[in-house]
Structure formats: structure tokens, C-alpha cells
Write the C-alpha cells for this entry.
Amino acid sequence: MAVIDIQAVSKQFGAFAALRDITMSIQDGELVALLGPSGSGKTTLLRIIAGLEFADQGRVTFEGVDAASSMVKRRVGFVFQHYALFKHMSVFENVAFGLRVMPSAQRPANADIKRRVEELLELVQLGNLAGRFPTQLSGGQRQRVALARALAIEPRVLLLDEPFGALDARVRKDLRRWLRRLHDEMGLTSVFVTHDQEEALELADRVVVMNNGEIVQSGTPSDVYDVPATPFVYEFLGNVNRIPCRLASDRASFWGQEIAVERIAGPSQKGEGLAYVRPHDIEVVDGRSALGQPAIVRHVSVLGSVVRVDLAVDGVPHLVEMEVSRQKFQQLGLRASNAVQVRALNARAFPA
Amino acid sequence: MSTARNHRSPLSESPLVRRLLIGAALGFLFLFLVLPLLTVFIEGLRGGIVRYIQSVSEPDAVAAIKLTVIAAAIAVPCNLVFGLAASWAIAKFEFTGKNVLITFIDLPFSVSPVIAGLIYVLLFGAQGLLGPWLSAHDIQIVFAVPGIVLATIFVTFPFIARELIPLMQEQGTEDEEAARSLGAGGWQTFFRVTLPNVRWALLYGVLLCNARAMGEFGAVSVVSGHIRGLTNTMPLHVEILYNEYNFIAAFAVASVLAFLALVTLAIKSVLEWRHGGDISAARA
């Protein structure tokens, strides 16, 4: 069942089109990542879903109710990139805020507010810091307070704007796992905005890739990573090599291999094209095999569990990156200036 | 061989230069600020404490003190409301004419107070634009208390808004959005989030505004009409006494005014000392 339904939403800021005709829906219990570079419209879309911004055209509905109604009626929790904690209030009062501003008829009694806030602070593992003020907390702690505060109003939908953007790498990783668990345990429907592809792939059930105010692709993390719809998605999600190839009708050929050409809107499907190959989809083949393209090893760097090999491949104007496991690397015994034969295990070609 | 010279930081001057600079600043301060202030109190007390109390408590002086306090008591809350509304609008919303509004807020700073007073005379005076209508309805503005209050409001107009606008602009709208997202209404957001965020800067602005409201001379002088016991504020009263060569009384009343200013200054210093961060953010 779709909790949030976005129909043909457009938004303009002056001459700049922030969103163009966005249509998507978010299902109950889903954790969706809006992924894109800055200026792609992802934050604007989140803010429109939140009701902090209004669409010029189109409409957003929450289980059939128009998003123009109040956020609390829709039970939407919003977590801001810079936390937006109330500096003059203690951690406890920050979390209690949403309960204290309820109309008196619905407002819980003080004792209930106290109990609820304490539960939430336990949940975010900050039970012992209730009396502190936001300035006395670390970034990760502040973000958890912001989450507890948003959860206090018992939202059905949790919206997060670059929730881990301002945190350092270690804290970010911990918080990610923790957020995933929280989402599952509380049965939330969550949407978060990020420009970090690793974060989107790790955390989300579904990744919505945006560029120039449009949705470029929407799918599971493995869909968008393994079967990118456009060159943009290829380049935005992870490293990729661009290999020149020749196009003939719907086939593309390079390195003696032949693959199908993806049809995208744009120029004709004849002539020059580019094949996209991930570094881990390049393989060194047996020297005697007829398959494969001649290449010279230029540089080897050991990056923990994988080894990156820069190759000068015949017919490719720039260095090609290959990633192999440590074990495979030792078997091959590659050294700089070795001559090898390579081929692509997996590739997708697009008209240039 | 290591001397003190070698250890001096590249940004500090030699002790002699430092002492000269500090001495010049202190001497200047003493000559132009401390000495005159002391003179006010000494001259006021020259005739003895009894004459001092008499001068301050005679009916015209009491009326002047009352009028000054009334004018400030009306002008400061008016400008408080205006300042909050204007800075809220300027900092939190985008609208056409924003720059015009900002320029107009600064107008009282750039216009001579005498001209400010004249504007009200030309507008509300007997020969003024609205004069005939006002006199037909028996409403007296110029040469009466309303005129004094209006002139005071005009002159002290920018103080609170100027203090709040930069701070509110720096704070942005995220806190308000957070409050709204948690279900707070407009007034709840204002009283629970926006106002506490600017409270120290607001108090600071109120103090500055109050100091100016009590001390204003030029604009009030033009609209007052100098009617003793009726339309004389403290600064005007001091001038009249002085022109009548009644030095002891003039300085006695002036010392009350100076005392009010000193109290304001003291509160301001305490605020700066305790909440320097908030206020300096407002001045940045």
C-alpha cells in the first residue's frame, strides 16, 4: 500500500527548475533513499513531501490526504541536516517539544510526557544526558536527539535530510546501522536524502537516483548498481571505466566482445558509443586465449582487501581501472609494465 | 643571549609604545567622559544635599521626570513590537520591497533629529497638513505629550530592529521549521523558539532604545513647545534651568539623567559579560 503518493510534481525557484514532473510513490514500511548530486532537487522533493515547501504543480497525498494539511495530522517526522535542535532547551525539553505544543485536549499529562521522553532517550541511547544542552553534545549525539525529537510525535513517516552529512566517517557508519534497525523495529516508513552513494546502497530498500530535477532511476540497490539506466547513474554510483566502442544497429562491439546497446533518448544509435565497465568486472585472461584486449600494467595499489590495477589498454585513450581480490592478485602475480590480456565480464553500452 | 626583545610576539609593540597608546586612550576618556560626568554630579551637589533634593523634587522637575519616563515607556514597547515584527519579516521571509524596508528602518539614524521633529510639526501642527482636521476634532499632538511620544518613537525606531535583524538572519529558519514540523502553531513557534533565540539581543536593543528615548533632545525640543510642567522632558528641563542661570538645579536634574544612563550602561555591561556570544553574533 502506498503511504505517500507523488503525482506530477514540479517546482520552480525563479528561473531554476528544481523539480520537473516527478511522479513516484512510497510503500508502507519502505526505506527509500533520494540520491543525487547537489542541485538535483532531492532536498526540495523531501521538503515538499514534508510540507515545508509547496509544489507549483502536481500533488502529494498521504494515504489519500492532501499534503497541504498539517504535518502532525499526517504524522510526519522531519530530521534536519544540521539537527536544528533548540539551543535554549535541554535535551529532555527538545524531545518533549512535540508533546508540549499539542492542543491541550490531546496533550499528555506531565508525568506521561516525562515517561515518553525517557523511553525515547533510552531508545537513542542518551538516557543519561537528558539534562545537557545541545551545545554540550557531540555531532552524533545531537543527531540522535534530533531523531528522538522527531519520533516523539509518533510519526508514520520519517523524513531525513542528509542525516549523516555532518558527521565523521566512523560515527556515520554506526548511526547508519542503528537507523536501519530503528526503522525496522518501529515499523516506520522512511525517506532520506543523501549524496553519498555508499550510504544509499547500504541503508535503503530502494534508491531513487535524481539529476537535474528528474528521477533518473528508481530500484533496489543492486538494480541501480548493476543495471544503471543511464551513463549518469553509472558514474554517480561507484567507479566506472568508459571504453570507446563501435555501434551497429543495437549491438556494440569493443575488445572483441559484442553486447546489446541500451536505448536511451538522444542521438542516433549508430557510430561511436561508450561501454561502461565497473573496475571489478574487468578480468585478466589467459595470454594464449584469443579473447581479450592487450594491455600493459601501469600501476598497482593495494587498498586493504582489494588491489587496484591501472592498465593502459589498447584503443582506450585513458588508464583503465581494474579491481581484483588480494588472492586473485597473488595468483596473477602482476607487476608494473607486465603485458596482459583483459576482457569485460559485465558491460553496458550507451550511444555517445 | 636571550633578551625580552627576542621573545616578543611579532604583533606586539614595545612597552613604551604600548604605554603611550593606552595612556592616550585613557587620558582622552578621562578628559571627555569621566570629567564631565563627575562635574555634573559635583555641580549638582554644590549647594548641598538639601538643595539638590529640592531641585529634583520641585513640581516642574518631577513633571519633567514623569514625562520622560512616560515617553520612554510608550516608545520602547512600540519599537519593541515594531522591531520584532520588522526583523522577523526581513530575516525569515522573502518579499518584494525588503531592501526598501531595511533602508527605511535606518532612516532615523541618517536624518537629523531636528528634522524629525519638524516633520511632525509640518504634519500635525496648526498650519500642518493634518492640522485643520486635528483642531476641528480638538486633538492636540504638537506641543503636547503625543507629539513628544511620536518624536521619541521616530528617533529610537532603528535600535531594536538593527540589533535583531543580523542575528535572526544568521539563525535562519531551520529552528522554526523544526518547531512547525513538531506540530507547533505560529504563536507557539514564536514564543517557544524564535523569541528565546533572540532574547539577549532583544534585551540589549531595548536598553539602547531606552537610553536614547530618555536622552533625546533635538526632535523632542522641536515638538515640545517647552511648556513648563507640561511638555518639558528632562533634557529640555535641564536646558531651561541652565539658560536661567540656575546652575545647581540644572546640574541636579542632569545628574538624575546621567544616573539613569549609568544604570543602563551597567545593565548592558552585565549582559555583555554574561551573554557576550549571543550579542556579538548580533553585531557581526
Summary: Chain B has 14 helices and no strands.
